[in-house]
Design brief:
Blueprint: E1 7-8, H1 12-21, E2 25-30, H2 35-47, E3 52-57, H3 61-65, H4 71-79, E4 83-86, E5 94-97, E6 100-104, E7 120-123, H5 125-136, H6 147-166, H7 180-192, H8 198-208, E8 211-219, H9 240-249, H10 260-279, E9 281-282, E10 290-293, H11 297-343, H12 355-372, H13 378-384, E11 386-392, H14 396-399, H15 402-410, H16 416-432
Parallel strand pairs: 2-3, 3-4
Antiparallel strand pairs: 1-7, 2-5, 5-6, 6-7, 8-10, 8-11, 9-10
Helix pairs in contact: 1-2, 2-4, 10-11, 11-12, 11-13
Length: 433
């Protein structure tokens, strides 16, 4: 039998031991419950079907967000018919295995794999009775209690506990003299890197769990506006008229709007815009950034990835279309130059009498111009077409930005009470600094 100890370290391995020690009943009260703990209870019930297991938690979003359990743990208990109850805001945590019970002082994420200190206090029989009556009287039927026997058991409990303390032979006492040197060292480190006030940090954590900044950029969405750029040195004559003509009429892709691939691309841009409008809340004081509600983030990413697949698929098809457009643009450029030089003969050709020689020389001039035109490689255009996103958590500096905080309020992302609370705490903290 395990030795009686009034003060204990109960972390996950000890929790498992207490659960499997139960032969008749197991009572558990915690802020919430995680998947590993739930699995332990399920296995204990499978091993001993007659074991009565009762679990009470604070059935709230806050308990899970604060790291005291997870939805999967609760779902596992429900799916395996483990009796689970709720007590709103309950902070009393305990485990009672048959008639042995402990008050537990859980960490966030409850039981750490490696014990760091005493976190449990053994409960006397009288308090065990009171806890069962308070939390589980509607599920247990014990009849009228034997007060005399209960008091006798409680007296024996304290007698053993006192005897344990009197005979405590630990090499290292549980409580030591205050270490002033350590205290000064901690104070120095905090002065170098001050902690955020707990209330403000909690507020930041609350909103970090609810919202994020996001940037969504769509690269390469202006194909129809790409114009062939003709550098001045590429034209062998000083003709502003020619430059103006080419700049006005010559685009990289002449008939792109009638191509099926381009129509699909335009539809894709509309889908990107619809995605923005559906999930993102633009923030004017942070150009390029928007706010997304975390509860919609997974669905946003799912739809975004679907659009990315469309971009990837369309890029392959656009490559052929754009290459054909580039070649057609080169042919058109030659035609425009031929038309222009036919009507405005270059100086180099005016003294040439032979039409055959003139034609060859004009062909050389046109080819030289075309060779010097900077056509952007189609592969580079395709590579630029992409959807990219970046997510950012809100930080301490964001909560110091009055303009941002007010915009979050204006767009009903934060409520006015939280705004005033944050501003008040932030002001007090900055005065203190």
């Amino acid at each position: 039998m395990k030795k009686f100890k009034q003060f204990e370290k109960i972390y996950f391995p000890e929790f498992v031991e207490e659960v499997f020690n139960a032969t008749r009943s197991l009572y558990l009260s915690l802020p919430s419950i995680d998947e590993e703990m739930a699995e332990t209870l399920i296995q204990a019930k499978r091993q001993n079907p007659d074991l009565a297991i009762y679990v009470v938690i604070d059935n709230s979003e806050e308990s899970i967000r604060n790291g005291f359990g997870d939805i999967e743990g609760i779902d596992k208990l429900l799916q395996n018919n483990i009796q689970i109850f709720q007590s709103e805001g309950n902070l009393i945590s305990f485990i009672i295995s048959d008639q042995v019970g402990y008050f537990i002082f859980p960490h966030s994420r409850i039981f750490l794999d490696k014990a760091k200190g005493t976190n449990a206090f053994r409960i006397d029989p009288g308090s065990i009775y009171l806890l069962k009556e308070y939390f589980f009287s509607h599920k247990t039927d014990r009849g009228r209690t034997d007060n005399a026997g209960l008091f006798a058991d409680a007296f024996h409990h304290f007698e053993v506990a006192l005897n344990e303390l009197e005979n405590n032979t630990q090499d290292q006492p549980a409580v030591l003299e205050f270490d002033l040197k350590k205290h000064e060292d901690i104070k120095h480190r905090l002065e170098l890197n001050p902690p955020h006030p707990p209330d403000l940090q909690r507020q930041i954590n609350v909103y970090t769990a609810k919202i994020q900044f996001v940037e969504l950029k769509f690269y390469g969405g202006n194909l129809e506006d790409r114009i062939i750029q003709l550098p001045k040195e590429a034209i062998p004559i000083k003709s502003e008229e020619l430059r103006e003509l080419l700049q006005t009429r010559m685009k990289m892709f002449q008939d792109i709007k009638n191509c099926n691939e381009y129509k699909e691309f335009e539809n894709l841009k509309k889908e990107v815009k619809m995605l923005r409008n559906k999930y993102l809340i633009p923030i004017t004081c942070r150009p390029g950034k928007s706010i997304i509600l975390i509860e919609y983030k997974n669905q946003f990413i799912k739809e975004l990835n679907h659009l990315k697949d469309k971009v990837k698929n369309l890029n392959t098809r656009l490559l052929t279309m754009l290459e054909e457009g580039r070649l057609n643009a080169i042919d058109l450029l030659k035609e425009e130059l031929m038309f222009f030089f036919t009507n405005y003969e270059p100086e180099d050709l005016k003294d040439i009498n032979s039409p055959h020689v003139k034609a060859k020389m004009l062909d050389l001039i046109i080819n030289k111009i075309v060779a010097n035109v900077k056509f952007p490689p189609v592969k580079e255009i395709i590579d630029e077409m992409s959807l990219k996103e970046w997510f950012y958590d809100l930080t301490w500096n964001d909560f110091r930005d009055y303009e941002l905080i007010r915009e979050l309020e204006k767009r009903q992302i934060m409520n006015s009470d939280d705004i005033e609370h944050i501003v008040r705490i932030r002001g007090a903290y900055e005065i203190k600094k």
